[in-house]
Specification:
GO molecular function: alpha-1,4-glucan glucosyltransferase (UDP-glucose donor) activity
CATH superfamily of the largest domain: Spore Coat Polysaccharide Biosynthesis Protein SpsA, Chain A
Helix content: 25-40%
Keywords: Glycosyltransferase, Transferase
Radius of gyration: 31 Å
Pfam families: Glyco_transf_4, Glycos_transf_1, Glycos_transf_2
CATH topology of the largest domain: Spore Coat Polysaccharide Biosynthesis Protein SpsA, Chain A
Enzyme class: transferase
Protein name: Glycogen synthase
Distance between the termini: 21 Å
């Protein structure tokens, strides 16, 4: 058990928008012996409302003034721990933050304070690493700790990432409450050093700082007032400048001149207008008088006498998930929300959040659509990166087949980011799809466990992609090298994850590297799952009593032969004239070229062939739609069809089952495994007749449709929820939860 207990204090004032995310990040801290105290200032927003879900898990205190030092002292006074750690209400500590800090305190009994590096709102660049301050309140920032100490500069910490021994804070009287904002922690650090305590900044204790707007600054970090900043800066210098040699008036004038120059800089940069500049100058002049008065009214500062810690007040952290060992996982998916996503991105997003809800540490590497950044999204750290520039990409490793440059740029960038996560956070397990071999550079790397998800790969796709075969250069330079890399990765993964038995059978039959006698990684059967849509309950008795003619048939998928779009359009052309009240909705990319007529598309050809037919008005081509529209389409349909010639799994079938709708799918691949006769129909895909027969039967039997839909939803809830998905993956990792 840890020898030191940590009281984690968050002081908040009108930050209801960012506070819940900070509290959620604290739930993922690894250090167990901790409690959380939230000190709420005189808020005018809904802070108390957003804290309700945490009642009973955190201690909620109140500060009567918008005074950060006063709020910190209230937190310290109520803290029951040996160490008092601080982060801001827009701070996001990484999982090992407290472990790293506490280890330093345990190693040095005279360590009074410790902190770490702070990343800015991008989650990539650093706001601060090592700080040195002087007695004017000026700061210098270093990437590494200076080797030589300077008598005029001392190490300091930043409030968003700082921790102090409670006994040390009691020794100096806590925070000086003259510092309502700014320089409060600098003052504490200086007074600790003067009392003989030591300070450290630790490289691996990182906090991400989101820079939320406040009552003092805009979202662009432009100050709306400088009164508190100026007051603290002038008061600090008056308190800590040795006297003599400087007279108080000279100290005030120097600080005031520096502050007025900062206003001029903001004005010259166009960040404020003339009126705002004048208001800021007025703030500085008013603060000068008030700071000078208080420095002499309180020559020892406004410190406090802290009570001894009350062990009975300790409220241990209670994360909202079951106890047990937690995994540290890296999921890799080049595409990821909010960009348009396919099946791999969809199941990756689902798995990441399902695992995070069980308390596991989950990181995702994805390609950015704009700037490089790291986001904390509902418990998941998402690292959005760019491929390595071509001129910076190293030569391919000699122990494996070479990738095309465009893919090597991505896999190298993935490996570089993953290496940083492993070094800093101990991430040791990577999960990625076989498609695009995104974990290629991590396989066989010391310390990494790579699990490869079997999906429709390049090799499995090749028979369904005549355009690849029609482009010899692309086939030779891109497709075939990737297929060779796929075979290598299959052999050298720690384990393989198969969403269906069929996909593993097909992979074995396709890759000679897995032939007879070859060593094969362990294979785990881990079917996908999807999050529930509570509004998608199956239709009840009204659907069962509906007219046989009243039916909406939904197709979802790309307009390509593998998805069976040719079979769907043939079936519509035959059945639409027979059933005048049946509507056909087709959702998916309908702009792809027809494989036999590359200058047209399936949709264009279909509309041209049947132009003038009255039933064509009941065929609705809707193209690609957003997630919300797709959910509504599943809810509103009566029957779902996707006669794919090959699906390694078939998430579309789960989406229809979740909505309580019967499915007609292709018998090959995942469809044949997922669609048992009581919830759907798996049809042959050599030609249109099996699909037409199945459609005709279900269109004419509404009661059978409704019963199948009800059973389909029950089957989804029992076997294919996102929670079931996460549990299956954890069993493959030999982790229960």
């Amino acid at each position: 058990m840890p020898s030191l207990r940590v009281s984690l204090v968050i002081c908040t004032y009108n930050r209801a928008a960012s506070l819940p995310r900070t509290l959620q990040a604290l739930d993922y801290l690894r250090y167990p012996a901790r409690e959380t105290l939230v000190v709420v200032g005189p808020c005018t927003d809904n802070t108390l409302d957003v804290l309700k879900p945490w009642q009973g898990r955190v201690r909620i205190l109140h500060c009567p003034e918008a005074n950060l030092s006063m709020a910190r002292n209230i937190g310290i006074d109520h803290a029951a721990g040996d160490i008092v750690a601080f982060t801001d209400d827009d701070g996001l500590p990484e999982a090992n933050w407290l472990d790293t800090l506490v280890a330093a305190f345990e190693a040095d009994p005279r360590l009074g304070g410790a902190g770490g590096h702070v990343r800015d709102h991008t989650g990539v660049a650093y706001q601060t690493r090592h700080i040195r301050c002087n007695r004017w309140g000026e700061a210098q920032f270093f990437d590494r700790a200076p080797e030589a100490e300077h008598p005029d500069w001392f190490p300091s910490l930043i409030g968003v990432n700082s921790a102090f021994r409670r006994a040390a804070l009691a020794d100096i009287g806590g925070f000086d409450e003259e510092y309502a904002y700014f320089l409060d922690e600098t003052d504490v650090c200086l007074r600790l050093l003067e009392k003989g305590w030591r300070l450290r900044t630790l490289d691996d204790a990182e906090v991400h700082h989101a820079y939320a707007p406040s009552h003092l600054r805009t979202p662009q970090r432009v100050p709306t007032t400088l009164y508190l900043t100026a007051r603290s800066k002038i008061y600090y210098a008056l308190r800590h400048q040795p006297q003599p040699p400087l007279r108080p008036l000279a100290i005030v004038q120097r600080q005031r001149d520096d502050l007025l120059a900062s206003v001029q800089h903001l004005r010259a940069a166009g960040k404020i207008d003339a009126a705002a500049a004048q208001r800021l100058r007025d703030d500085i002049w008013r603060a000068s008088a008030d700071a000078a008065h208080d420095a002499f009214a309180h020559p020892a500062g406004r410190t406090v006498a802290l009570r001894p810690a009350d062990p009975a007040a300790w409220l241990p952290a209670q994360p909202p998930w079951p106890a047990g060992p937690k995994a540290r996982l890296l999921l890799i998916s080049r595409n990821y929300p909010p960009q348009p996503i396919g099946g791999i991105a969809r199941y990756t997003h689902t798995l990441a959040h399902a695992l995070a809800r069980l308390g596991h540490e989950v990181h995702v590497i994805a390609q950015t659509t704009d700037s490089v950044r790291t986001d904390f999204e509902d418990g998941v750290w998402v690292h959005r990166i760019e491929p390595t520039a071509a001129h910076d990409c190293p030569p391919p490793p000699p122990d494996r087949p070479a990738l095309p440059l465009v893919l090597r740029q991505w896999t190298h960038a993935v490996a570089h980011t993953a290496a940083g996560l492993r070094q800093r956070l101990g991430i040791d397990t990577a999960i990625a799809a076989l498609w695009d071999v995104e974990a290629y550079d991590l396989a066989r790397q010391p310390g990494w466990r790579v699990l490869t998800y079997l999906v429709t790969s390049y090799a499995l796709n090749l028979p369904h992609k005549p355009d690849w075969g029609g482009n010899p250069h692309y086939l030779r330079q891109h497709v075939q090298p990737i297929i060779q890399a796929e075979g290598w990765l299959l052999r050298h993964s720690h384990a393989l994850l198969a969403s269906t038995q069929q996909i593993w059978h097909d992979v074995q039959a396709t890759y000679p590297e897995l032939g007879a006698g070859a060593p094969v990684p362990t294979v785990h059967h881990v079917p996908f799952g999807i999050p529930d849509d509570p509004a998608a309950a199956p239709a009840g008795a009204s659907a069962a009593a509906a007219s046989a003619a009243a039916c909406t048939v939904l197709f979802v998928g790309r307009f390509e032969p593998r998805k069976g779009i040719d079979l769907v359009l043939h079936a519509i052309a035959q059945l639409a004239p027979q059933y005048p009240n049946v509507h056909w909705r087709l959702i998916g990319n309908d702009r792809l070229p027809h494989p036999e007529q590359p200058h047209t598309t399936y949709r264009q050809l279909f509309e041209s062939q049947h132009r003038g037919q009255p039933w064509l008005a009941r065929v609705h081509f809707e193209g690609e739609v957003g997630d919300a529209a797709l959910l509504r389409a599943y809810r509103e349909c009566d029957l779902f069809i996707a006669p794919s010639r090959y699906e390694s799994f078939g998430l579309i079938y789960l989406e229809a089952m979740r909505a309580g709708k019967p499915c007609i799918g292709g018998a090959g691949g995942g469809g044949g495994e997922l669609l048992s006769p009581d919830i759907g129909v798996a049809v042959g895909t050599d030609g249109p007749p099996p699909l037409i027969d199945a459609l005709q039967a279900l269109i004419e039997q509404p009661q059978r449709r409704a019963a199948m839909g009800q059973r389909a939803r029950a089957h989804y809830l029992a076997h294919y929820s996102d929670h079931a998905f996460a549990q299956r993956l954890l069993r493959a990792l030999e982790l229960g939860c």
